[in-house]
Predict the 3D structure of the following.
Amino acid sequence: KVATTMSSSRRFLSLLPKLGRAGALRASEHATATGSLIFTRGFADDANLKKTVLYDFHVANGGKMVPFAGWSMPIQYKDSIMESTVNCRQNASLFDVSHMCGLTLKGRDAIRFLEGLVVGDLAGLRPGSGTLSVFTNERGGIIDDTIITKVSEQELYVVVNAGCRDKDLAHIGQHLQAAKSRGLDVSLTLHDDRSLLALQGPAAAGVVARLLGGGQGGQQQLAGMYFSEFREMQLAGAECWVTRTGYTGEDGFEISVPSQQALQLTQAIMESPEVRLTGLAARDALRLEAGLCLYGNDLNEDISPVEAGLAWTIGKRRREAGFDFLGGQVVKQQLAEGVSKRRVGFVCSGAPARQHSAVRTPDGRQVGEVTSGAFSPCLKKNIAMGYVDKEVAKAGTPLKVEVRGRLSDAVVTKMPFVPTPYYKRPQEAKK
């Protein structure tokens, strides 16, 4: 998942004199394809930026490196953002997401401990399966969204956003210290010695099957591995933790690999002609088309899971247990009484809407704000998401979006904007 804030049109325009004509043209393509990423050119070699172990590989393969959440990351390669976005929907894309923060919680009380901080039913997960969840604060606001995998009854693997790493670790650490003082058996291990790759798209499973040894054996292993499930696998000689998940709306895998083996695994994956190296700009366009939230845009500490349309992440057992997580009583009250605003999608005309674009009724009354917006490379339309007053949140409601002082037509639209062909268990696929 990408974790940062989105630039306004004014910020983009302010960069143009610094970039020059050629830089402005490249930046214009970025701004057209995705409105969610802050980037500035010319500072990717800043000594203060962290680099993944694949940095040199990215540069050698034409990666345009930009500062992102304290890291130097590829925003794009040699193909256009439009092309790379469509390729992920049709073939497969490989993303370096090693800037994400992975950690493990172990111990007899690891599940009990983490359930005090997140809304998900971790005890109810099957070993080897995972879920999207959120960390909440005392007000029910979202500190971060996260993928949590139950490796075993005494081990949880957690991935949090790069931009939230410091505050997440401080938050977890504070509560961990208190838990240990009460005698709870739980410990935390950071996985800074591992890299994370995301292989996404309809051809991804075939690529992983070949890395497992090819033939029918690899295909059979993956046939029994469904969305959000976790396995330890040897891929191209590397001992990997593989989760069938991703941030594009496509079937795919997130692969945690020891950093010293990340390059060899990447090279092995790229031997498959279906796979293209893909940067953060296309990743952002893909997640928006899939209706997925970006922390810092669509989620923050003043937005609750209920307002964000993420109430489904609150497990039934957690509700029956009395919402026994941080801020749970606030969330419980919101579910009982309703909330005044809701996250919705829009299809818009005119210029692409950006974060903070005002949403108005046809008579000009402001009823909300866009949090993410871009031109959809796959739909060839302007799409966006944001928060509006609940009385105008119904799909099909005509509204207006204000971009640079001009009003354009917008229609409230159900998300995801594109189909999401996750590889789910048959009974789950029907839901």
Summary: Confidence is low (pLDDT under 50) at residues 1-34, 38-44.
